[in-house]
Amino acid sequence: MELSDLIQTSQVDNVRVSCPMLPTMTGTLCVSSHHLLLCPVAEKGTKQEESDFWLLHSDVDTVEKSVFNIGMFQNTDYGHDGTVKSGMGTVTLKCKDLRVIHLEIPGMEETLNIARSVQALSSLNSITLTYPFFHRPLGCILGKGWPRDTTENFYQRFAAETDAWRVSEVNEEFKICPSYPAKVIVPRSCSDDTLKKAAKFRQGGRFPILCYYHRTNGMVLLRSAQPMVGTSRRCCEEDNALLDEALVGELPGFIIDTRSAQEAKQARSAGGGTEKKSRYPNWRILHRPLERGQALQESLTRLVTACYEPSQLMNRWLSRLQASRWMSNVKEALSIAGLISECIEREGACVLVHGEEGTDNTLLMTSLAQLIMSPECRTWEGFQDLLEREWLQAGHPFQLRCARLGWSQSRSQHESPHFMLFLDCCWQLTRQFPQSMEFNEAFLCMLAKHVYSSEYGTFLCNNERERNVYEVQDRTLSLWGFLNESKQRPKLLNPMYKPNPLTIWPSVAPQSLQLWEGFFLRYLLPSKNTELAWQRILELVEQSKSH
Fold it and tell me: Could you give the strand order of the β-sheet that contains 209-213, starting from the edge strand earlier in sequence?
């Protein structure tokens, strides 16, 4: 299929475009394979050489259209009888970064054709037809920024402090777990044969592996998928041995199941479940449920709807915000991440985290806990490494989960904004500890944008195996390579950053958590005062450095 086949009308004159943060423009609207752009008409009636409006089709979440028939008349000027229709229409594009763009288009047919074209081009099924495979800016270098972090590099950071762990290549060519990376960190005493048998006992082959080593006391954080105990209460000696070998010292470990006890029990009917206490006497099981799947997606949709509902009163706004349950999800995520950190830091115990598949709430919890405990993860470089390890290499299915954001009511059952929830929690931490993060809010907003729609291939596909199949590293550019350029990086750093070697304990009190205005309301609230405040902060920081 050629993308040009999806373009029903490629160009329309006298289109009026209203876009947040830009003045209203009128000009020629052009539809290309990957972009919608407007060539504005200059004051003297000549078209400008460059467009002020470029929109990537994949930025569009939903397309809404309406047409108005102005009238019909008979055309007999050229000796033949024909009916000519005149009219106009509007196309409203609701974008994944929460922009709402209005297009006023002359002509009913043109309006419908533009809407259909954008709808088709914004929902391509083939990964290799998406823009990252075509994006080649001037001076681009394929391979720059790939890979961001490797298992070996992560292992070497703590290898000198303990010899209890090793890097295993048991998953070479993704043979035993398609969603794990090729190399994983496991107890040194466990053979690859033990790992293979343990993998068969965990959903999707996601057996317990190390994702964080706490240097303060040597405790570790593990993650996996649920055990496949089923209704027959199956057990696996190799899985038991693997978990017991991961323990440090004589204290029992904690298994944090991100489902309720009832949900874990119900999972047994489908072959899953949770660890049986009698089979894992050295581990204490704690159920700490988090919303997931459709429930979490609906929470985000209700929040976006509440934010963009016109002219609502304060009481209604607060009621809609509370009903969305988004802030409740933020609170629960930070609470459980704090519990994991407390088990490791204060109780001196190892922790295993899993839910069902181990690719969603599990990764949300392990990454947040590391951000709370690890000073390295709060640096510019370390945070990027964290995202690479805990989300990309760990197999979060970005292609399935982040197909759309929060506008559409009709969605795939696979969509769920776990990564968006993670970024919101990160922002809450930057508010509560404004000097402890080396990155700023603009960086988090940029990640939120690129995870849903991007010119870069970093967040494409659902796991490392798929990215290898589609040769993403060889055929697309890395987002990390772009963000680390000298032109981009200074705009994304926190000027107030001071390294904090301590664990940062988040508060989940109602007065401590706020709606993330910088993302959810950034196209609704004036940004001038915020920009002036940040400019003043930069000036003060520069003055303090000069003294």
Answer: 209-213, 220-223, 351-354, 253-257, 283-287
User: Are 515 and 428 spatial neighbours (Cβ–Cβ below 8 Å)?
Assistant: no
Please report the beta strands in 334-434, taking only residues with DSSP state E, as ranges in sequence order: 351-354
Neighbouring-strand partners of residue 353: 223, 256
The architecture CATH gives domain 151-515: Alpha-Beta Complex (3.90)
The span from the CA of 107 to the CA of 318, in Å, is: 41
- Rounded CA-CA distance 208/132 in Å is 34
CA 370 to chain centre: 17
Angstrom CA distances, 264 to 87, 257, 272, 274, 362, stand at 58, 8, 8, 6, 14
Phi, psi of 160 (to 5 degrees): -70, -15
pTM higher than the cut 0.85: yes
**How far is residue 375's CA from residue 365's CA, in Å, rounded to a whole number?**
17
Query: Amino acid letter at 275?
Result: E
Q: Of 13, 54, 56, whose CA–CA distance to 37 is shortest?
A: 54
Q: What is the distance between the alpha carbons of residues 395 and 185, in angstroms, rounded to a whole number?
A: 15
Do 100 and 55 form a contact (C-beta atoms < 8 A)?
A: no
- Among candidate residues 15, 152, 20, 119, the one with its CA nearest the CA of residue 526: 20
Structure tokens given for 304: 């976006």
User: What phi, psi does 173 have (nearest 5°)?
Assistant: 60, 20
Fold: same for 3-124 and 151-515: no
Cis peptide bond prior to 147, omega within 30° of 0: yes
Euclidean distance between the first and the last CA atom of the chain, given in angstroms as a whole number: 63
Is residue 358 very low, low, confident or very high in pLDDT (cuts 50, 70, 90)? very high
Tokens of 314: 């304060």
pLDDT in tens, 228-275: 999 999 999 999 999 999 998 888 999 999 999 999 999 999 999 999
Taking residue 216's Cβ as centre, other Cβ atoms within 10 Å add up to 13
3-state DSSP call for residue 39? strand
Mean pLDDT of the chain: 90
**Single-letter amino acid code for the residue at 356:** E
Q: DSSP labels for 169-218?
A: -TTGGGSS-TTS-S-EEEETTS-HHHHHHHHHHBGGG---EEEEE-TTT-
The residue type of 32 is S
* pLDDT tens per residue, range 188-239: 999 999 999 999 999 999 999 999 999 999 999 999 999 999 999 999 999 9
Domain boundaries, the chain: 3-124, 151-515
Q: How far apart, in Å, are the Cα atoms of 180 and each of 200, 353, 371, 431? A: 14, 16, 21, 33
Q: What is the CATH number of domain 3-124?
A: 2.30.29.30
Checking phi first, is residue 348 left (phi over 0); if not, alpha (psi -120 to 50) or beta? left
Partners of 72 in the β-ladder? 85
